[in-house]
Amino acid sequence: MSSRATILVVDDEFGPREAFRMLFKDCYRVITAGSGKEALNIIDCEGDGIDLVLLDIRMPEDDGITVLQKIKSINPEIEVAMVTAYASVETARDALKYGAIDYLIKPFDRADAEEIVRRGIARRCEQRDSRITLQRLQLVNSALLGNVEQACYEDIRADAVITTDIDGLVITMNKVAEELTGWSLEDAAGRGIDEVFNIVSGKTGRQCRDIPEKIRKAGCIVGLTSLTVLVSKDGSRRTIADSGTTVCGKDGTIIGIVIVFRDITEKMIMEEELAKARKLESLGILAGGIAHDFNNILMAVLGNISLAKREVMTGTDLYIKLFEAEKAVVRAKELTQQLLTFSKGGTPVKNTASVKDLIMDSAGFALRGSNVSCDYDISEGLWPVEVDEGQISQVISNLVINADQAMPDGGTIRISAANISVGPSCIDGSIVEGKYVKISVSDKGIGMPEDHLLRIFDPYFTTKESGSGLGLSIVYSIVKRHDGLITVESKQGKGTTFHIYLPASQRELKVEDKPAAEFLALETGRVLVMDDEQAVRDVVGRILEHLGWEVGYAEEGTRAIEAYQAAMDCGRPFDVVIMDLTIPGGMGGKEAVERLREVHPDVMVIVSSGYSNDPVMADYEQYGFNGVINKPYRIEEMIEVLHKVTHQ
After folding, report:
1. E-assigned strands of 116-179?
2. What is the tens place of the pLDDT at every residue in 8-25?
3. 355-503 in CATH: which number?
4. pTM beyond 0.70
């Protein structure tokens, strides 16, 4: 039998059966049946092997409620969730009276289905655990009565077992109990169970006392406290699962108690990490939507600031204020990438960039208002790198902030950058042979112990009281996606140094001798702007008109295609189309560019989006676009992308 939990999907239609199978096949063993009769046969053959049944409530030959009742009569522990499309919700609710745990309406929502299955499997596991615990306690009881402890303990040797007399004084304990409590049987015998089996509530921290009395009053199997923590003789703590019950003599009188428990510390840690991962995934989905909406708002702000800057004389107080406001908006955009990068993949949108500029801008911004300064040692003639400038800026910022926090009394962070060549045997083969730019960020702060260095990049690992433990995980994730390497060295009381290796680019870093804005100011043409947000259309239109372009507008893909065709028909075609990638409730840029190219293969299209982690933005040419621009953007970025696509 498979070690994975088993789901039986019962539906007379192939489509829903296959949909459930595809959804859950990677996590569970999935069996399908086309009728209630077939399902019952499978349950008979599988015995206790079925954990959860997803049962269609209405099938041509079977009534789902009747099938549910038959399943429960065969094995009441099997969990059943009803699935309904044509039957009323009231009918589905009625099924709850006969033991169904929940109902799902077709077409089902994936998140709802996953939650129902997760809950059903968890309940099934709890039932099994309770049954196994009962069997173990009965086994121990029989062992005590028959004085054949060793033979019986062979079947429960993975669990710790302690028995006491009627007064709660320890009589026996097995080797596992000795190891977990820190007490030997020789030392524990005759002592009170509260002293040897020292447990506290994991929720309240209160010690559980009078264990024998609690078990006697319950008169059945009982858990001893909420989320039990065992405090051993040496003070170490373990999370345990425990159960206790009374031991009765042959005449039925209580002669003692027995406690069976096991160490579940690692299990709890794994479950907590899984819960954190699920939360992070949910936050990632939420952040994606927030990023799109937030970046659209920032687009209106940043676009208007960029326009205002061009109407103010350079060097004036007003120009400087606008310049600082513009930089702050760009930083606000980068904040939305922190969670997206870690949880959703954050595929880099790479450009050839200068490491020196990235370091100076990022470090300077990160240390504003701090009592820590930066000392730069950046070699001349640094090779350019092919990077996502926003993400690498995020890496530098996070490392600088960490260094700043490591020196609460102030100090100096040293940032160096140099060209290096990595040979076949360098750095344990962690990166491929080639040319790299090495960036080092050093502080003279509190440092870290050696055991922390092994976990420093693990998600949620942090030594800060208010830290999330995501900063260095994000840094590691970004560097790896750039085919680079990050290492760390640290000594307590002497400081920490992070080393980043980024592959050098084969391309030359182009420096425009003449500002692109002046060049493009002479251009004329027509641009079609497709975006569902009125504020974005307005500000992009003002930017383009300022640059001398005539602008047309469309709210979504279908209208953009119609507008483009109408312009062709009247002899005034658009030279460039700027398309938003995501249009809620309408045709987005990915589909629109495909349809547009079917009719007009030579169309020049720029993709724009607030979802900067979308794969289309990283590899736009493969999706039929000629250029890419991430929202929000400055007027200079619009000039650059227009210059690129109109000179291809």
Report:
1. 160-165, 170-173
2. 999 988 888 888 888 888
3. 3.30.565.10
4. no
